[in-house]
Amino acid sequence: MDCDRKGKIMARLRVEQYVVGEVMTNCYFAVNEDTMEVLVIDPGDGAKYLAEKIREKNLIPKAVLLTHGHFDHAGAAGELAEEFKIPVYAEEHEKETLHNPGVNLSGMIGKRETYHADEFVKDGDIISLAGFTITVMFTPGHTKGGCCFYFEDEQALFSGDTLFHDSVGRTDFPGGSASVLLKSIQDKLMPLPGQVNVYPGHNDTTTIGWERQYNPFL
Prior knowledge:
Layout: E1 2-3, E2 9-10, E3 13-20, E4 25-32, E5 37-41, H1 47-56, E6 60-65, H2 71-74, H3 77-84, E7 88-91, H4 95-99, H5 101-104, E8 119-121, E9 126-129, E10 132-138, E11 147-151, E12 156-160, E13 163-164, E14 167-168, H6 178-189, E15 197-200, E16 206-207, H7 208-214
Parallel strand pairs: 5-6, 6-7, 7-8, 12-15
Antiparallel strand pairs: 1-2, 3-4, 4-5, 9-10, 10-11, 11-12, 13-14, 15-16
């Protein structure tokens, strides 16, 4: 194990990316290399495939984290949670998105699905899972209850559809707001250290420093 300057033991984070579903969503495994515990972030589809990967790598699932409740991020959460008997976490303002097929956009794939979370967290909550200390950042704008998960010790941010490489999330879906989204990004994400690695819901990874300097929407 590594230690920070204060002597605190730091878990070793390995991030594995799996692109799933019809709209090519990034599902991430946040793996603690010391314990092989894993958090599954935004499993939008491919539950059987993701479960196979977990078993293939001898990982120990501890929770599912949802940055928001759209079908392409939450679609496989329930199946994985049931398979491994683990809880699903989402932000407290995201209940309507999860529960309402008209808001979670499952109609786009010809379905009317509802999704669930076992634990609803709020802005500023600090949760301890799989050996990681994770700060919940409420970042509405793409959806009413969108959030990011910040692994401060590991300098990693899972941004969902809030912040992308050289772009930001769409705001033309139910509950979306361009002004709210940009305020979320400017107030919550841009003050983070520039070296923080950003793992977005779609497309390429980036850093806070790159987006602060080059993102045309900011």
